[in-house]
Amino acid sequence: MKRLIFFSIITLLFTNSLLSQVNSPWKWSHPKPQGNYLRHVKAFNTTTFYALGYAGTFIKTTNGGANWFINHEVMGEALTSQIAIYNGWFFDMNTGLACGSSGKIARTTNAGVSWDTIPSGETATLYGMHFINSTTGFISTSSGGNILKTTNGGLNWTAISTGTSAALYNIYAVDVNRIYCSSSSANLRYTTNGGANWTIVSTGTSVTQYDVYFKDANTGWVCGSSGSIRVTTNGGANWTQTSTGLPTSTLYGLAYNNNTLYAGGHTFYIFRSTNDGQTWDSVSFTGNQYYTSTYYTLDRNGTAMVTGGAYGLLNTSTNTGSNWVAHNYLGNLGTLNDIWCDNMNGRVIAVGSASPDQVIMSTNGGATWQYGVAANLGTYTLYGLFMLNSNTGYATATSSKLFKTTNGGANWDTSTVYATSTTLYSADFVNANTGWISGSSGRVFKTTDGGSSWALQTTGTTSSLYKIDMVDANTGWFVGSSGAVRKTTDGGSNWTAQTPGYTSTLYNIKMFNATSGYLIGFSGTLRRTTNGGTNWDTVATPFTQTQYGLSFINMNTGFIGGTTGYTIRTSNGGSTWQVLNTSGSTMYGIFAKGYDSAFVCGSSGYVFKLYDAFVGGITWNGEVPVRYTLSQNYPNPFNPSTTIKFGLPKTGMVTLKVYDILGREVKLLINNVEFNPGTISYDFDGSEFASGVYFYSLFVNNDKIDTKKMVLVK
Known about the structure:
Distance between the termini: 50 Å
Radius of gyration: 27 Å
Low-confidence stretches: 5-16
CATH superfamily of the largest domain: YVTN repeat-like/Quinoprotein amine dehydrogenase
């Protein structure tokens, strides 16, 4: 991961195109248009580009990047860590296929608006896909040595063994008989009789080969680690290294168009040859870009070119690479640990770990972001952000460093809180002068002069103290590792241990007064007190993910976020929860202004914004049935939406599928998501389907629980 070096100014303001993100009220705010890895791209013309990637991502523009459509449910609703799309194929702008982790295949016929799941018979990751015409195509797999073949445009697939257990990274078919597979073993596997027999041939190198491409029956190339590109002119029987001019970095993708061969993977360049790889030159494609990283995929169609990669990097050209536009603007590739906003359309500040951009800031509700505002903060990681008001705030950091702003985050002053190096995790102020900081080794510090000086307090613990929350100048709490919870009623002169009924790490606490509040932590822990911490009662939640982010407006309304990219919100004190998937990964910080308005931040510099009254999705409550149940959908018949309800007596991995009247799977609603015991409602939108009879089935831990019939009448 690299920052481009040709920017000379410290503060950069990038504008971003409009986007339409379906399936979730959380919208990408940073980076835009989205930040998940992209592994397959398609250029249709100079205005229309498609891409597929991790977290079930499909993204497209039809006007050169001015607007983007995003769908993160190509493989169904799932924990983001479980879904990765590695490849795809588009026959035209409407019809295409995607393949990826856990043997998943999906198909769209309406330009990516919706996707139908297709059984593959595989559980291994599907890495490569190639079609020789509109009906016949092939897929390569990560283990077991199989390839898959279809003869009806991807509706059905059959397995063909290649006789190896090596990972087959990509596949290229010259015709129905001659098929090539690049491999993790550095050898190439090919068949000349449609898979009846396979030949293993050395490409002359020991490095992994990630892509393979043939321009005709004789001439082809493979590319892989260490800048290796090997060429054959006799159908794969022999391979030689192409000439110099290539980097030593890994090359992941090949493309061939108009007698020009391209290789991609480098962070700054695409490499180009007009003589079948005898000589190479480079094309810089970064454009107006702040950060760059690995690129996994590229495509050219006439004068239109596109390349995509890590963190949603996406670059396009309309003049065969002479000029490029960067569509993904990422200012912080590290973790963002905390976030704050003045209002939903105003100032937003997020802090994290990627020097010199530990602080990113927006003045228009996350529509655009400024980078480099913390260029004077050294290399310290910032963990906590507390804003006393719109202008004055504090960011806590490693090595006993504290940073203070008095102009809304535009500038930051540095101070050292303690002579001994201490990680400072959080700060809390009750007025302009009086505040506290919690940190590592059980340390709490107090100031009464606005942070000019700090006094170490005795806490009685050596745990890491991740959050401190003071409700007034006398009363407050901190939480930390080993289930540490302590309370003070005298401004921190004394801290008394409380018993939350939990011994694992606690990450956050929010108290509304001297008696009532919540704390969260490891393995889905949420506990509530209404008597000042004398007792902490367990509040049931849908997941067992570790909870990091906690932002409640009052005892009834608030958000929680954690390790899977899922957030949950409640408006009734946790009796029921709505499940909202960000489509990112771990979420560390949440700042809510209301039930329908919040920001959340996390790993890879991700920021999401929620600012609407979302209706639908998944709702969970803690009413635990005595047995597994799948209720009849209501209403039924329906048009176009209905609710499917099911119950879990114990924790389980849930899959919910919809089938047509012929028994074909047409929609994967929930894809292997672990839910805690309770009752779950799924709001199903059938607007993409024709009128008719459908069936829905509930699976828990891969066992079918029940199947029900539903009728869609339009």
